[in-house]
């Protein structure tokens, strides 16, 4: 009873916190949205009447011709915030089709409207959609042609009869509206549901787990999870629902499905989620089932890696909520942003480059939609031992003169899986396969390039951190060499990072380590106007840094050295803080590079030696024996493995010369098979 009273007392602050966080739009913006929807409704009605007249129907038929506009998603559920897009569905008669009438005729009508900008048709998407801005408001417009000659203004699309004699693409287009309506019918208290959902969507964004496209959960997924908790606690206030949400899903045994109602099986013949009949459904890691027929898994994008991340975040939320209930923490602690750039020792950096902002928007949309595949391929090729945490936020480098953005992925080895001592992971072939798929983009233009690189935590570029944040530069002497990660910089959360515009300053090429001159592996391939396959080559880059780069032609280009920077202002050359997938550990010196070229494939072999001990480093007073210091170094290199076997040999090296301990890098290669070496780079 006391706990219940505490949660009731928390309710006013909970709602006030959401208001102060800017999660509610103003009355003026709400009215503006209504006006925009009204204008769009008139446009689609006139469009259908125009087509009806052109196809020779009677005047009465033209007069009765109609299209109905529905909304779904966050706007329909009543949980949208300022600047959110509006998911809309246009339902038209049977003689108005999607392929020509919607994506060509209506597209041209919208293109001629001065208030329509950023018009982008996506006809080959899983759910075909037309994206654009209307009076500055983002619209996602879907189309469904139903088996009616005249669409009534009061059409109820929640009835199964609307699904008769339509294809599966149309069913998927109708599903969003049908699911949103069904959720509102199945929750016991709509206002409590809305407040709780707003709170948890805000929390998910702050913690970096709100993104369906990258393998986390999107708006409808979070709505279904919250709705299920509302069903389990029908009389609870939002504060208690938030707390119970984390308690329930911390203990949930995935892949047990989350369902708001029993799965319906109608006689219409559309496939429904059923792991007993469909082998593919058995592979889903986090099934969250839609409540409207045909029932589907709305979270099929979730992988083992992203599920692990979300479970960890649920556990974090549950811990904070327990502290809130005991008056040991406030609500602000729950919404602390996730320190992504402090969470891992190794990252993949995906740089997306284009000639201008419009090209970047199109190119980035394509690459971002495929990033989930990179996560799945890494899991596949390392047999699940190397886990990938994609971060769903983009960052822009203001020093580049061309349009640019970057995504990051944290890398870590799977906990609880025994890994051989010194094991490394080779994923160069995995990345090559990913780049090949990216290069299949049919709307590629010159200047669209992609670069995937491996960076360590201390080499994360400065532009991902908040304005004014200065990263400490620890001295490279023995005292700090093995503890530099503890002093790593702070938070690169999306809420604190303001995206900056591209300016005309040059690329910062600060040298963190000794440069090594390298020879070109393959000749320069000029850009072409159409995608094609090409050789994978190394770039001779100053600062001893390599980068796996790609443009849509599939070829990499050799860029000149640091003395010719003017020629590479808009190329995908390495930033000083970046390393390629086939580079060696920071401080190592590459002494030999062999290239074996066969056809369009270039395989690289890099032999590395450990860095030479810095003779200028100050003498460090050691209070313990050299034996104990060496043991500590070895433990940091091999993680939790016991000292013995090859480790004893490494211990002998450490005792002989503390400055010459061989530190192998996390090694990426072509076949995805783990190689021998020390896994220091994979330590969490």
From TrEMBL:
InterPro entries: NT_sf, NuclTrfase_I-like_C, PolA_pol_cen_dom, PolA_pol_NTPase, PolA_pol_RNA-bd_dom
Catalytic activity: RNA(n) + ATP = RNA(n)-3'-adenine ribonucleotide + diphosphate
Domain Poly(A) polymerase central: start-end pairs: 192-336
GO biological process, one term: mRNA processing
Entry keyword annotation includes Nucleus: yes
Leader sequence segment: 1-17
Residue spans of biased composition, Basic residues class: 471-481
Residue ranges, compositional bias (Polar residues): 527-570
Enzymatic class: transferase
Domain Poly(A) polymerase RNA-binding: 339-397, 399-473
Subcellular location: Nucleus
CC annotations in GO: nucleus
Cofactor annotation: Mn(2+); Mg(2+)
A GO term, aspect molecular function: ATP binding
Keyword terms: ATP-binding, Magnesium, Metal-binding, mRNA processing, Nucleotide-binding, Nucleus, Signal, Transferase
Pfam family, one: PAP_central
Chain intervals for the UniProt region annotation (Disordered): 466-584
EC id: 2.7.7.19
Gene3D superfamilies, sorted: 1.10.1410.10, Beta Polymerase, domain 2 (3.30.460.10), Poly(A) polymerase predicted RNA binding domain (3.30.70.590)
All residue ranges annotated as the Poly(A) polymerase nucleotidyltransferase domain in the record: 16-187
Annotated family: Belongs to the poly(A) polymerase family.
Designated name of the protein: polynucleotide adenylyltransferase
